[in-house]
Write a structure and sequence with these properties.
Blueprint lengths: L1 H26 L6 H30 L13 E7 L2 E7 L5 E2 L5 E11 L7 E12 L2 E14 L8 E13 L5 E14 L11 E12 L2 E14 L6 E10 L2 E9 L5 E6 L5 E4 L3
Antiparallel strand pairs: 1-2, 2-4, 3-4, 4-5, 5-6, 6-7, 7-8, 8-9, 9-10, 10-11, 11-12, 12-13, 13-14
Organism: Flavobacterium cauense R2A-7
Protein name: Lipoprotein
Length: about 280
């Protein structure tokens, strides 16, 4: 009987130990996967595209529509109102889907507004959303953008530099939600001398932000500025991004300047492997 009780107790302790180990592994679930990085990449693409739409609309508003070639598709309609010293542009992509020039499907509205005094430095304007979806991902929240013209370490010639304060929420089709706050800086290093042509623009993007999802929080830092070429179908041609969650991290490398949708990823210092990104 004593032997039987001893065996039972041993098995019970082993079971509890196994459960304890599983709980420790669950607590370490901050380890990132390729799927996590892909989701992060989708949110980055949304943030980039909406920011460029906001900049495009500011350029069109400030130029008085003279010689400005907008990046908006024909299926989008724009309604502009001026109230005192404030202008507002409502971009309506409809309810069934309006294809952006890079293939993304947009629906709903983006509302952009700012001061009619375009000589202000920095110039500050904002945008928010009304039932807006990007590839069936719901986007809400507010972005505040601040633009100056200055020389930086990236380019000695004075050029537009936009600092973007993020406060956005994303809801994916599967119901998962993510909240993102932080700062991005977009420097227009090429194309600033042709202000009415958007497609020749080249940007360097830097910054860091925090993303909170279900049971996790992660910090993303651009360690090597991301180069965005608007004329490239995939836009992102180089740059390195570090994503940290608890004790884990992923390093995303977009390459050295080739216009393709190939990037590499290394998780927790592992050997980098390639994956494709895009819409």
């Amino acid at each position: 009987m004593k032997t039987r009780n001893y065996v039972i107790m041993t098995l019970l302790l082993a079971t509890l130990s196994f459960i304890g180990c599983n709980k420790e592994e669950d607590a370490d679930s901050g380890r990132m996967t390729t799927e996590d990085v892909t989701i992060n990449n989708k949110m980055d693409a949304i943030s980039n595209d909406v920011s460029e739409i906001a900049e495009d609309q500011l350029d069109q508003q400030s130029s008085g529509k003279m010689n400005h070639v907008s990046i908006l598709p024909d299926c989008a309609t724009v309604t502009t109102t001026v109230n005192g010293t404030t202008w507002t542009r409502v971009i309506d992509f409809g309810t069934t889907g309006c294809q952006y020039y890079n293939g993304a499907m947009l629906r709903g509205q983006i509302i952009i507004s700012g001061s009619t005094d375009f000589s202000q430095s920095p110039y500050v304007w904002t945008y928010n959303f009304n039932n807006f979806y990007y590839n069936n991902i719901s986007v809400s929240g507010t972005k505040t953008l601040s633009r100056t013209v200055q020389a930086t370490t990236a380019l000695a010639t004075a050029h537009p530099v936009v600092v973007i304060d993020l406060d956005l929420d994303f809801t994916f089709p599967n119901g998962n939600t993510y909240a993102r706050t932080g700062t991005r800086t977009r420097e227009l290093i090429e194309g600033y001398d042709t202000p009415h042509i958007f497609m020749d623009n080249v940007y360097l993007v830097s910054g860091n932000w925090t993303t909170i999802g279900v049971n996790f929080s992660q910090v993303t830092t651009i360690t090597t500025p991301v180069r965005i070429e608007i004329s490239c179908a995939y836009k992102l041609v180089s740059g390195v991004i570090d994503i940290r969650r608890n004790t884990h991290n992923a390093v995303l490398n977009y390459g050295s300047g080739t216009c393709d949708n190939i990037a590499t990823i290394s998780i927790d210092g592992g050997t980098p492997y390639t994956f494709t990104f895009g819409n």
